[in-house]
Amino acid sequence: MNKLLQFCIALTLLLYSSFAVAQQIEVSGNVSADGDATALPGVNVSVKGTTTGTLTNENGQYSLRVSPGNSVLVFSYIGYESQEITVGNRTSINVSLKGDNKMLNEVVVTALGISREKKALGYATQSVKSEELVQNRQPNLVNALQGKVAGVTISSTGGAPGQGARILIRGINSIDATRDNQPLFVVDGVLFDNSTSEGTTNSGAANRGVSNRAADINPDDVETINILKGGAATALYGLRGANGVVVITTKSGKTGAFRANYSGTYGFENVNKIPEVQDKYTIGYSGVYNPQDFFPSWGPTVADAIKIDPTHPQKLYNRYEDAFVTGKQLQNNLSFSGGNDKITFLSSIGHLTQEGVIPFTTFEKLSVRINTNVKFSEKFSTSVNLNYINSGGDRYNADRFNESLSYWSPRYDIRDYLNADGAYKTYGNGNPIYGASTNKLRDNVNRLVGGVNFVYRPLGWLTLNYRAGLDTYSEDRKRTAPGPAGIANERVFEDNGLGFVYQYNTNFRAITSTFAASANTKFGQNINATLRVGHDLYDRRIRGFGAEGTELTVYNYFDLRNAKTIVPTQSAEDYRLMGIFGELTMDYKDFLFLTVTGRNDITSSLQSPNNSFFYPSVSLGYLFSQQFKLPQFISMGKLRASYAKIGKDAAPYSTVSGYSSYSQLPSGTTGFTRGSLLGDPTLRPEFTDTYEGGLEMNFLNNRFGLDFTYYNSISKDQIIRVDVTSTTGYVNAAINSGSMRNRGIELILRATPVKTGKFNWDVNLNFSANRNKILSIREGLTEINYASQSGYANSTVTMRLVPGYAYGNLYGRSYRRYYANPGEENPRELDRSRPIVIGANGFPVINTTQKILGNSQPKWIGGITNTLTYGDFSITALVDARVGQDRYNQMGNWFSAFGIAKYTEDRNDTKVFEGVLADGKPNTKAVWLGQGKGPDGVEYGNGFYRNVHRGVSENFIEDASWVRLRSVGVSYNLPTSLLKKSFVKNARLTVTGNNLAIWTKFSGYDPETSSTSSGSNVDGFTGFTYPAVRSFLFSLNVGF
Amino acid sequence: MKIYQVYMRPILIMLLILGMGGCKDYFELNQNPNLIGNPPLNSLLSTTTQKTALNSQRIANISSYFVQYLANPGAGGSTDTYQITDYTGAWDAVYFAMADLYDMKKKAQEQGASDYTGVASVMLAYHINLIADTFGNAPFSDAFTGTTLTPKYDTAENLYATALTLLNEGIADLAKTDTKVKLSAANDLIHKGNLKAWSKTAYALKARMLNKVSKKSTYKPADVLDAVTNSYTANTDDAQMSSFLLRNPWAQVARNNALLVLDGWLSAQFVNQLNGTTYGVFDPRIEKITDKTVKNEYVGTVNGQGNVGGNNTVKDETYISLNSPLTGDASPLVIVTFAEMKFIEAEAAFYAGDKARAYAAYLAGIRANMDKYGVAAAARDGYLANPVVAVGAAALTIDLIFKEKYVATYLNPEAWNDARRYDYQYKGFKLPLNAALPTFIRRAAYPNGEITKNGINVPAEVVLSEPLWWDKK
Lengths: 1040, 473
What we know:
The complex is a heterodimer of chains A (1040) and B (473).
Chain A: H1 2-17, E1 25-33, E2 44-47, E3 53-55, E4 61-66, E5 69-76, E6 83-88, E7 95-97, H2 102-105, E8 107-109, E9 115-117, E10 125-129, H3 130-134, H4 141-144, E11 152-156, E12 165-169, E13 184-187, E14 190-191, E15 222-228, H5 231-234, E16 245-250, E17 259-271, E18 284-285, E19 288-289, H6 302-308, H7 319-322, E20 327-339, E21 343-355, E22 362-375, E23 380-395, H8 398-407, H9 432-438, E24 440-459, E25 462-481, E26 500-523, E27 527-552, E28 563-588, E29 592-603, E30 612-622, H10 624-627, E31 634-648, E32 659-661, E33 672-674, E34 677-678, E35 686-699, E36 704-716, E37 719-723, E38 732-736, E39 739-755, E40 759-776, E41 784-789, E42 797-801, E43 809-815, E44 846-855, E45 860-870, E46 873-883, E47 886-889, H11 890-897, E48 910-912, E49 926-928, H12 943-947, E50 957-959, E51 962-973, H13 976-979, E52 986-1000, E53 1021-1022, E54 1029-1039
Parallel strand pairs in A: 1-7, 13-16, 34-38, 47-53
Antiparallel strand pairs in A: 1-4, 2-3, 2-5, 5-6, 8-9, 10-15, 11-12, 13-14, 15-16, 17-20, 17-54, 18-19, 20-21, 21-22, 22-23, 23-24, 24-25, 25-26, 26-27, 27-28, 28-29, 29-30, 30-31, 31-35, 32-33, 35-36, 36-39, 37-38, 39-40, 40-45, 41-42, 42-43, 43-44, 45-46, 46-51, 47-50, 48-49, 51-52, 52-54
Helix pairs in contact in A: 8-9
Chain B: H1 2-20, H2 23-26, H3 41-66, E1 70-71, H4 88-111, H5 114-135, H6 156-175, H7 195-212, H8 221-229, E2 239-241, H9 249-258, E3 265-266, H10 268-274, H11 286-289, E4 333-336, H12 338-352, H13 355-373, H14 377-385, H15 398-408, H16 414-421, H17 448-453
Antiparallel strand pairs in B: 1-3, 2-4
Helix pairs in contact in B: 3-4, 3-5, 4-5, 5-6, 5-7, 6-7, 7-8, 7-12, 8-12, 12-13, 12-15, 13-14, 13-15
């Protein structure tokens, strides 16, 4: 790393020294927009062939020292055509820039880094620019995209520092819960691993909010992100792109101006939503006060407890307010960029340090980048991108933290977890804060991502391009907990036991090699054609090794040699994929664009002959506004249509079964046991056929834009690693199973309702809706269970694939509904309109057959961004919504079982449950809801909540729709007049608030959080999660 | 397209050669480096013998609350008070062990290793009983094959027949002398490669099974006695296992409790029988089972009630003890014992009308159990001579046999089978406080894992007081 820094500094100095200070004159002038003559601030004015340059101020004025004579000034501004003007002997040059037909000539980066004009595409893409990306200062790049892209669902799985975020494009494509459904990340042409490594069970990483690896990307380095959604867009990436592709282009130096840029952000954050709890009843069971009871809230009222125990506080604590702290973060980024005709470069260094709202959780990231581009001649150029990242932090198990939080009695202050002698203090149940302070998982990732690209144009019409990329990292994880210190009467924290030290190391290495040759030609006057053929190789190797040492001799010496037993863990995975592809694009008279692609993949994860397969795509773009003369108010109109077939292989080793090491034997004895996976050697690739159509229109001089997409995709022969009953002898099985359909719409609307000299208002809206249906599953199966989460008294909620029903359905136990004719009852669907059946004992009857109680997939998602600019001020607000989704609130189940929920305050009431008896007659029996013997003399045992309520999943599957004020940012650009005399070129102050408000019916934490890590496709469970946060950030951005 | 033909074709062909050449091996990663294809029999033997004992403990850690050896330290414990509780962990462990046994047996059959098929059959039979006696109907005939992902459930009665057949097959295989692979002593963590011992264990398990149907008309005491005769003759024959990664799991419970992670509290029912409260006789085995409280006495906890009288961390109750030969760090997990055989003999002989044999077996059972627990000879003999115990053959009752067997099967899952056969008629045996059922528990609910992953086959939920087939007249 030191070397890298040295290199970076040396390069900087080298470029500095090349500035020749010759005899110069000062040139100044105004830059305005052609037509309405409004001043254009921020226009890049540079001297061609040098690194000298400046920006225009808010009044569109600039001044610059240049050598007189042949110097050429280049005026460039996004959305306008660049102009070059020879200085001659003039000292004043006024320029008016012509608006370029932005929507028409916008260039986007498509598959394999190919830049294409957006108008020529026959499929939907959407790009996010640097400014939009950094607007909410999210350290995780994936989170930074939230609400900004149509058809893309991004869920921050929780608020932990560095915690993973899940990104799904157009819903679930593959139903395998364990398989990555997330898009491929490609950074400057190199495949960038975005896995979330859960490690071994003992490492506990799955519940500790470990990062998705794309979190390693420094958002400040990013120039643009382009999202390729459908099959036609991603076809050239082959099966790796089957879930969509996120194409990231990092910033690069620009010819002309030498720039330095600093940005710094300080922020703090709090839990944005905590559940409501009852504050009437205290510790004990059956209404009996017991200050050491396991049950936190089934005791008497606080008032009654105080009579028994004078030390009982007057008011219960609120552990959900007390357990969390204020999180903090600090980001610093520094970059240098510049170049001349031959060489451009960018170097950057970024650092982030963050402390989370669960005490003792942290994350730190350092990123260093160098991008250079060297043009040896008009025919040959090469570029190198290097990115070194060090990231990691202390992670705590949010699931345990919150579960313990449920058990913790609010009779006691949760923050009081240490005795004077430093030993653990508790009345009995585990204190989660003590857990967080001692039960540690620390990860440390050292990663190097680099790519080298050669472009050779031997002939005007022929381009050869070769790119080699490497993504490699080593990830160290150390999990530790101290044993008891040996202090008299010391309490032991259950999860720590007698202390342990687990150490793991994973080495990841992926090589990407892509060769492409492209040839252009013209057929006659009207047809342009480009043919591209190529070869693509991906080779991934992962090696893991770990040692789990249990029971420490010296209680807090975390060294494997200090452990009583050591169990080694080891893992290896190789994966190879090769593709050969071709693409032919043709355009006719610049209004009709046709693209045909084909690709053949050979994968190592399927067995011959299923491991080699071909799939094609075709797309058509029709720019009808170019062909016909349309009314004046229509600036552009285009229709798109595409069809694509995409293949997908299996997870590595899905075709193999075998025996794995059995690790429970004492040293000296070894054993083997059936491996957890039932592999299928005959697995076939799965294929997705996608049809997509779209319409793009711009109106009123591009002040208003519309982009609509409809798609319909059917995936066949889905490869699933399905959870199977242990009675098969396996934990899961790899199968080809059935087909699934996704169809939906995406709509993007842009408008600039106000555009005056000083005041601008931009609105950007995206909306999408996806509908999913399982069309069929494997023969012989009627349903596939792919996930479940427990609830008390068998109120477990499961997610199943059932033909004819959607992915994401949540099944569980419900209150039995009354059917006069039992034959009318649908065995899967719950009819909530029917009366509940009340048993002879006066309590509602539980239907033990699991029925559909909700669905985890949103009916629609949307986001709207409003940006108001007035002079140097701008304010941006993003509101996004996810509507029509349900979640199982596991915490809610505990809230019922342990008498924590506010509604359990009615526990000592006597009531008549509304419903009908088995014979259909209305229930009239009054029952007591409490525990033990009721006022009516009847023995009620564990009471209504534990006997009935907690066992009904229906009570805990909640509407998790939300609308939120995702972010508001206010920024102020220091007027250039103020900065004129200083070396500072521009400066901006920004205050950002994220997650400022949420509107939802959900009773737990923010329902965007998830019980499963960002690598999982299971999104129906929340509850004991790392709560989401509301953050306030203060940023300074200075350019030199 | 001329350009394409002239320039692109050679390039494409070059690429194809580049890509395909030598890629045959490069893309054939059909071996998972984390797995092996064909493990040797002995490596499955060490796994399965350990799992068998651990599973005995896993089930006992549930049933010991039902028979009130143990009581939850807190009020309203879920298992303690018969609530529907998820035992997916125990269920899965039993099935994964059976899968290993199934494979070991299949591989042994392929290799003509009758030693291994015999041992596998015996352990399979043991596991089938663990599952069927806890849950009732369960998959077996359809299980482990890799062909179905949702194995059907066999009736508990069929499972019983299957297990009995397996025991008979095991006995036959163990008698063979032409095994192609000899049982590995080093990997046999139960009987150290001793075939005779395995055969005795097979008979012991058979005796258990034949005796289990005592409520049924098919019950034949003579068959039971026959099996007993072929089983153990001394405590040294007992099937037990003491190879642990760290320690005996009961010792772990005891250690956790000592470190105030409360667990393993002895039930008042059990303690009161031993400390003289119930029968007026002090049973010296209590000194080998547990330790005295800080108040120098033996006090149990009432099931469902949890801790009483102040702080639950004051050690004024009795717990599973690290000092016991059954629950110390290095203590073996006991699967089936000579003492238990003697009580089975006593019961069968009693029903067969041979009171003399029954009485002799009853006394021998107590004596063997005392010796197993390491009770001093004087204390042992004193207890055996106590008139409450030494009632004479004529005065021997079924109650006395069950009473004594209850102590001998401490922390053994078989105790729950006895309790149900005996309809929980132990003196002083009461429903737990705030029991979720109006009467004693007779079965456990199917675990979540089955409901979620094999939902189409799981039998409809019945109330947990509904007896299993052998528990009904």
